[in-house]
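Issue 218. Parser rejects a valid record. Input:
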Amino acid sequence: MKKIMIVDDEMISLMMTEHILSTEYNTICASSGQEAISLYEQERPDMVLSDLRMPGMSGYELQQRLQKMFSETIPFMFMTADSDDETESKGFENGALDFIRKPFRADVLLRRVGNILQTVEQIQGLKKAAVTDPMTGLLNKASAQEEIGVLCRSASGVLMMIDLDSFKLVNDIYGHAMGDKVLIRFAEIIRSAVRSTDLVGRMGGDEFIAFCQNIPDESVIAKKSEYINSRLVESAKEFMGEDMNIPLGASLGCVMAPEEGDNFHDLYKKADKALYNVKQHGKHGYAFYKDDSGSEGIAGERVTDLANTFMILKERNPAKGAFVLSYEHFRSVFRFLYRITGNYKKEIWMAMFTLIEKDGADIEMSQAEASDAFFSILCNSLRQSDIVTEQGKNQFLAVLYELSRANMDQVMIRVMDNWKEDPASHSYSIVYEMDIMK
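Output the parser choked on:
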């Protein structure tokens, strides 16, 4: 229920107005401007209905004082016994949303108050749409830069750039609808990792930003990074299945304010450098900006020996089945393996699978759904040392390392047998070609 503050020094008028409005709203009564200021800070009403002429502080002065104190536009409606048009005009000039003369009818007062509250809701809705990202509900890029910029100048804290690692593979393999689900959940996870007083925004694509106030030390950010990464993997497996093997994660580039400055754009550049540092040292972690950040490892740990480098470079928690790559990365690995076959005569096989709609079959699912089903089967039918990718909407490539011809035939039989058990095989068939790299 909406809350309305009524301010009037005449007790009979105050009681009558409160009696009318209390039938539909929560009401707070004040008999002077000074009392109204104290009550407003405690109650934060949705609207103020104030008499104009009061001893000590007029309704005009009360409105100006409140708006200056709280730096916000407060919905005001004035009431007065004056019949002077100039009084009404001055009320509107001061920003009043409406004006009513005493004595007034109950139904007229209720209708006018209802109109004001409805208008305020519409304005607030438009403002929210203008400053929020429509997909995630977080601040959009422009509003995030503006609001976080204000905090950087006035508060201490940590500015974080948060990047969703390997997100492109979600779109490439599972489609953009799944990518949108992951982005929305990722935004929810970030929001849950910070306090309600902290600011979070989406800068575009899979890049987010946050400003967390009054962070005592680096360990707080370490816990946030661990939480975001673990919840993200849980959500990804919830959406895409336990066999999901995309290396999803979050990288956080962090900078302290005001230690490293109080200008948003300068801090943003420093957080970006810290984020680059994380990306270059294994991802799925965090790093703080320092003058020598180019030599820092993940989470601020300096890389001093080969053993640490191995820990940074190696895949974390490798999933079962083949290693899924985007087509661009697959092509790079293919070229590298092609060099190996030329120098070391290794037996490396290449296979191409194509999904084809069966003639006359009852189509029980879309081609996109059938493609997703087969790709999942293909990944789980191969070894961790094999690599796979999608080539177009209904074609898939696989590279299998060190297999004899007989073993390669067995692999193809296993893939096809697993496909036949899937409902999608009733409507779609798979044809394949295979050959050894030469």
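Fixed in the parser; the record now loads. The longest helix spans residues 106-131.
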